[in-house]
Amino acid sequence: MIVGAMLLKFRMPASLRMRRDTGNQGSITVVEVRSLSSPEELQRYVNFSQEVYRDNSQWVPPDSHHLVELLSGQGGFGPESHIQPFWVEDAGRVLAAITAVINDTYNRRWNERLGHLVFFEALPDQNEAVEMLMRAANGWLRARDCESVRMSLLPGMQLGLTIDAYDEVPTIFHSYNAPYYHSYIKNGGFRTECGVVQYQVRFTPELADQYREMVEHAVKEGVQLRRWDFDRMEAENETFTSLFNETFQKHFGFMPLPAAVMNGLTVGLKDFLVSDFTLFAEAEGTTVGFVYSLPDLNQAFHGMRGKDLEENLSEFQQRLQAIDHGVLLIIGVKESQRGRGVNLALAARSYLAMIDRGYKTASYTVVMDENWPSRRTAEKLGARVTRNFNVYRKELA
Q: I need a surface site. Which of 73, 139, 354, 370 has the fewest CB within 10 A?
């Protein structure tokens, strides 16, 4: 894997350097794409989003430490993942940034040579700079035998780019992106490959009654639901990882994720999880399904924007206690157990726990457009689509 000080130096051809007339008494600056490797550069890459979204009230800052780990190749993917961040700068000012990724596990699973572009950020009105940046990232992927590239969706790293609801704060694990990003991407030769939806439900007493019936039906079918044991979280993470990889193996964009990556959702977030929200389903002595839900932590993080959490711990804790929206992020049932209402029972039990904590609403995310079994589950739970996302693709000539 290409990480840290071992990053391969990527020589930029002259075409990826551009002379720009500043209009200031004939002054000329050089716009240049650079491949990044040092911790200082990666931290600056992460901090760049603060400049992009400085005046945007809906943006939620990323977890800086975690994102730097991902960019440096230390995010738990191991030697199967090859990562190279880039930015384009003008006289030392960053104009846009993007990260190219090749994951060998993904390519073996789908028998293709696909690269990925993630963590794209750019200032407005930087068409030429963004074109240079994408040309460099695509060139890096092409030089490593990639035949095509997908943008904005890679399990364990990034979900799709939002195409609407720009006036709302994104839910946890979704990131905000500027509306003009889509023009940059389309001008870069990408097409829409897949749509993604997020559902939302507003809880009512009538829905709560329906949820109880869903749980009772599954129990009559011999299905038992149990909370995750947070005292054995590492062991629960192994079960979670195994079930996730089995139940999602046929889904668009899937690749088997190592326990070290899934560990970030479990052990890493243990202090923020609610045991009643995370459940396993068991039948005939076997674990056959799971649901992973959590409080919408973005409600708390958004309110703390610009404040140091340690220095304002009391306020942050108050914001955590005030969360009233839950996020059902992942739900999976073994193929042999589908049709017994296990999926509905898992989601319903998780939602009932949210209602018991005083939550008013919940999301059901992330769902691919063509995943109608999951979409019908969301609809049976009383949820409706409230946000949409795009995944892009481009063939590399």
A: 370
> Does one domain contain both 294 and 383?
yes
User: Please, how many CA atoms are within 13 Å of residue 192, restricted to the half-sphere of its CB?
Assistant: 13
Domain ends where: 93, 120, 151? 151
- Provide the number of structural domains found in the chain: 2
Give dist(CA 348, CA 342) in Å, integer: 10
Residues 257 and 156: beta-carbon distance below 8 Å: yes
345: left (phi over 0), alpha (psi -120 to 50) or beta: alpha
Which tens digit of pLDDT belongs to each residue from 283-310?
A: 999 999 999 999 999 999 999 987 888 8
Q: Are 114 and 81 in contact (CB under 8 A)?
A: no
Please determine, for residue 353, whether its predicted confidence score (pLDDT) is greater than 60.
Answer: yes
| Model pTM score | 0.90
Per-residue confidence band for 19, with pLDDT thresholds at 50, 70 and 90: low
388 contact partners, CB below 8 Å, separation of at least 6:
162, 163, 164, 165, 195, 196, 197, 198
> Does 168 reside within a domain?
no
Residue 275 is assigned to a structural domain of this protein: yes
Q: Reply yes or no on whether the pLDDT at 20 is more than 80.
A: no
Looking at residue 76, its pLDDT comes to 87
Mean pLDDT of the 334-362 span: 96
pLDDT on residue 23:
55
CB 52 within 8 A of CB 123: yes
Residue 43 Cα distances to 71, 154, 255, angstroms: 9, 21, 28
User: Does 186 map to a domain?
Assistant: no
Q: What is the DSSP string of 114-136?
A: EEEEEEEEE-SS-HHHHHHHHHH
Backbone torsion region of residue 341, taken as left when φ is above 0, otherwise alpha when ψ lies between -120 and 50, otherwise beta:
left
**Contact status, residue 301 vs residue 271, Cβ threshold 8 Å:** no
* pLDDT tens track for 30-63: 799 999 999 999 999 999 999 999 999 999 998 8
CB 161 within 8 A of CB 266: no
The per-residue pLDDT for 307 is: 84
Query: What is the rounded CA–CA span in Å between residue 44 and residue 132?
Result: 20
- Distances in Å between the Cα of 239 and the Cα atoms of 10, 272, 339 are 40, 20, 22
Share of the chain above pLDDT 90, in %: 88
